[in-house]
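LAB NOTEBOOK - FOLDING QUEUE
OPERATOR: T.R.
BATCH SIZE: 2
PURPOSE: Compare the predicted structure-token outputs for two unrelated chains run back to back under identical settings.
PRIORITY: normal
REVIEWER: second-year student, initials M.K.

ITEM 1
FIELD SEQUENCE / FIELD STRUCTURE:
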Amino acid sequence: MKTFSGHPDKMNEENGLPCVGPKVIVYSLQRRNEGEAWLSCHPPGKPTLYGRLICQGVDSSGIPEITASEGFVVNEITKKSIHISCPKENASSKFLAPHTTFSRIHTKSITCLDISSGGGLGVSTSTDGTMKIWQAANGELRRVLEGHIFDVNCCRFFPSGLVVLSGGMDAQVKIWSAEDANCVVTFIGHKGGILDTAIVDRGRNVISSSRDGTARLWDCGRSACLGIIADCGSPVNGIAVGAADNSINLGSPVKVPSEREIGTEGKMLLLAREDKKLQCVGLCSRQPVFLFVGSDAFNCCAFLSGFSLLAGTQDGNIYQLDVRNPRTPVRVIRRSGAPVLSLLAYRDGFAASQGDGTCFIMQQDLDYVIELTEADCDPVYKVSTWEKQIYTCCRDGLVRRYQLSDL
């Protein structure tokens, strides 16, 4: 069974993103046999609409000829995508198949991945105990990064694309050369496994969050801790750094910051906490900006702008908040009850993935939601992008590359 989700094509006037409220729509597609699939649309508070997709054959160019039963419309079909709408509910989604699938990078679940700034390299971690660098075009292995004890939880490229930052269950944060796989820096200080990392500007400073409840700022040049930015008393599952809008008061530091702090001024640090709290602090000042209580543990977070942000919870909610008025969410997006595992600002919208295999993209200039398919019900742990290419990693051990030009 494959389950996909979609949203109405109404646009929110303030932020330009698809509006999600009482008209949330969930689509389901289930293969019945080789040439037929069940289709359903689930508007909240209303009866579910059921239908069928029937393949009549394939035309001379290799594109399937598909029709929908009453209540649904097949708007467009390519070799890699199908656009379906439900006019009665004003709902529309475009389902996109992977352009390429890489199956030989890891042997088990892939828990994190990132793509370099130039789009040439990928880095990923797996429950097979490895962290690898590979060619983003074909998945060909380039380097194996060895040095962490136990599993590596997170990895990302520095802006240069030549250096990798990682964090592991061994409570260590490491910096690696992507060119020769040497570990050039190891940060030691956390008392629990590293759950996420962030890079400040070009990367003279980096930040890590841990199961020990702290977020620490590190000096890469001297391999030293510059301070504890936040001590939450609860595991910090995800973090994000963003430049603050001029209207936001970040407070003033109690102590004069070290001269080794580079690029922290005017920045916010967002912390997704296990204790159902989303916390924001001034990165330079260490002063609180807001504390928001959600419906469940927060797993991930991302800034959309200098005042707008997203945060995803274990019970499937994606909160959009305005830092200038964080008490009431701008909106809450709920596609299913599956954990929200990854959030990423993308162009004028965002990409998200969940624990039921759902992975989708919302953009301001599109009147439909892009659904990234083929993960079935396996969790999609991470999404990374480079230009029009979207990469995902999944529990099934596959890296999938989607090409938005295939739409």
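ITEM 2
FIELD SEQUENCE / FIELD STRUCTURE:
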Amino acid sequence: MRPIRLPEPPGGFSGVPEIFKGGVYGTIRRAVVIGNGFAGAENQSIGLVRALGLSGRQSLCRVTRPRGGINDWLHWLPVSLHKKLEFLMRRICGESRFEVIVKGQKVMPLSVETSGLYDVLEADAKHIAKMARETFEKDGPLLVVASGRDTISIASSIKCLAPDNVFVVQIQHPRSHLNRFDMVITPHHDYYPLTPHAQKQIPWFLRRWITPREPPGKNVVLTVGALHQADSAALRSAASAWHDELAPLPKPLLVVNVGGPTRNCAYGIDLAKNLAAMLQNVLWSCGSIGISFSRRTPEKVSKILVREFSTNPKVFIWDGEGPNPHMGHLAWADAFVITADSVSMLSEACSTGKPVYVIGAELCTWKFADFQKSLQERGVVRPFTGKEDISESWSYPPLNDTTEAASHVNLALAERGWSICT
């Protein structure tokens, strides 16, 4: 039989299908989020994944640290050492007695509703790196996004074990060895210790122990605040989901978010009493007020506000039961009053472009005072005085940290010849 001569392919044909030219092997189609069980940290990672167009194509692995009781005094230990110590204590004390010793607060992980993640596995650097290497030719590179101190060793190990198959992003400053990550995304105020003002506050013999010790490098992306999931699509969805509950409320709706005292932003019942008095002063200008407390809010603080406003028909207090209205509040609020301790809550509210008032900023110290100063200088927040007319609105260029961080990730990937399949 005479062979059939096929026509020559067009000039420049390399013998490789077009889809593979810098394509499959350089296209990121999935992500792994390394979490620590705390909403504030995991929300940042999931928010970045959403902004990169990989929502629904991510899996969550958690670094689990023993918590509650005596374990809360051991949080400064590396996770691996902490787990070994807990195992030893269980062997010595016995299971039943050990449960009594550790009885206390438990970590409150993200709900499925909030995170969109259903299967949570223990974070194992060797397993994740092996998966990235073995699936590289079929599925392309793996994006790894981690946030929080306990995730640092896992994320850096994945990078070390599979450097050619992963792109690792560490959110929040890892304090040292930044070259172990492809990218570090951290707020500008994390570099406050390098400023002349901060250096004057540090005794000379302690300066070598205060981090960071050098300016941000090429792989560091600075933000104003925290990354989050409250993008326009999420707010539209929340507006629809909470329409029946929040749309009928008289306008303007003032949302009050109360966090909890921290080491660098300490407060107690005095701030709660001041907040109650100030809200009474602005109540005349509000159609309605929605008050929410965080998991960190001390009972003595929440009790003051509940006692003051629980019978007021204009005021609606979320008691922690039922669905959390936080995203609905972000979508439907006309203005916010937020305690100064929460970088996350402030960052979310300041991304809406709506008026944001802060109470307690004067109580913040160290880098958190620097964060409050930067927000005020940008005009995105104002101090809450109790003399405001909430019906009078004002605006500002909204914070856009999450989208801007995602742009930096895309640029870094492009330099490596990679891209994200959206």
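REVIEWER COMMENT (ITEM 2): The mean pLDDT is 88.
FOLLOW-UP: none requested
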